[in-house]
Design a protein that fits this description.
Number of domains: 1
Distance between the termini: 26 Å
Radius of gyration: 20 Å
Strand content: under 5%
Structural class: mainly alpha
């Protein structure tokens, strides 16, 4: 069963390593280049015209890697895996429409705010509602109406509040990844680290699943997750696909992921968190995305309340660029921050299991 994880990761990596340069040639031939803000760091001016919408590469590679790994190993897809992939594809489609209008139709702001929000709401609500269906033989649905940190805790918040909560998480994380995607390879590299962590979490939850309680040394520390191994397969495919894309996206980037990629990554990361019952833990695991989002909130809030800016420019990565840090230096140091967040998150995850042992 574990072969699925290896196959999905390797296939995802191969497909983006080989497929991304083909996409670059296609986008460049059509003239689908990136728009660069005039008020940003001056060094970014040279990036104007770089092909964007590169998220297409790792979205398609992840989906292909998932289904090919199933075909090779003979295992059937699960509802959890399909729901997470559906969320990624749906959010990516909204981002693609935004990129397409922005680049092809030459409308600088892309989709109108209401239309973009409507698209995200439709995709998010569909995911949240469907994730409470499809119970297995143990009565577990892909998602739970209880809040979760390392496992579910507290009272059920009910299906309506769950949908609202899921929507908030999806929109917040998608926005966080979108804001982080401002320097070559920054969001892609950070995502690789998080998806690697979720591959480990899925494998661990599968090995310590309550479905195998009779064979566990400590049944009290088991996990009630419907399809943990399949979530690991999806996370592995994502890790491989993003790693292959990073080869072409790192400085100097030959292609940008665009909203197509950033909305998809934020959506699928939230989907993995919800279905693996680690909803609040993802705020630590994806700590860099949270930190960068908060820098924008602080900047806007401070300017509106006091008329003064806290940072030279928001999001946070541009503040350090304007302080004289090179783009590569900012990216590598921010990757280190993200790595620390992942280590802390995995430490808390393991500590929660060990405490119940």
């Amino acid at each position: 069963m574990m072969k699925q994880i290896l196959f999905s990761g390797v296939i995802g990596l191969f497909l983006t390593l080989v497929g991304t340069p083909l996409l670059i040639k296609l986008l460049a031939r059509k003239g689908y280049g990136q728009y660069i803000r005039d008020d940003g760091p001056r060094e970014h001016a040279s990036k104007r015209g770089t092909p964007t919408m590169g998220g297409i590469a790792f979205i398609l590679a992840t989906i292909a890697a998932y289904f090919l790994s199933k075909l090779i190993t003979g295992y059937a897809p699960t509802y959890s895996g399909l729901l997470v992939l559906g969320l990624m594809f749906g959010m990516g489609l909204v981002g693609f429409l935004d990129d397409y209008i922005k680049i092809v139709k030459r409308r600088s702001l892309g989709l109108r705010a209401k239309a973009k929000m409507a698209g995200q709401l439709i995709v998010g609500i569909a995911f949240a509602v469907l994730s409470l269906q499809f119970s297995d033989s143990r009565g577990n649905t892909p998602a739970s109406t209880k809040l979760s940190f390392i496992t579910d805790f507290g009272w059920s918040i009910g299906p309506v509040l769950f949908v609202v909560w899921a929507l908030f998480m999806i929109l917040a994380m998608s926005n966080g990844v979108n804001l982080t995607d401002g320097l070559d390879g920054l969001a892609t590299g950070a995502s690789v680290l998080v998806f690697g962590a979720y591959t480990f979490i899925g494998v661990w939850q599968f090995q310590e699943s309550c479905a195998n309680a009779q064979t566990l040394t400590n049944p009290g520390a088991c996990y009630e997750v419907r399809d943990p191994l399949d979530l690991a397969v999806v996370a592995s495919a994502l890790m491989g696909a993003c790693l292959g894309f990073l080869w072409w996206n790192t400085s100097p980037a030959k292609i940008f992921m665009g909203d197509t990629g950033s909305l998809a990554l934020g959506g699928v990361l939230t989907g993995l968190a919800i279905l693996s019952r680690t909803e609040l833990l993802v705020a630590i695991m994806g700590g860099l995305f949270v930190l960068i989002t908060m820098s924008v909130v602080i900047q806007v809030g401070s300017f509106r309340l006091t008329g003064k800016r806290v940072f030279r420019m928001a999001p946070l990565q541009h503040h350090f660029e304007l302080k004289g840090w090179s783009e590569v230096l900012v990216v590598v140091r921010f990757w280190i921050i993200q790595g620390i967040c992942v280590i802390v998150g995995l430490g808390l995850f393991y500590a929660g299991w060990a405490a119940d042992k």
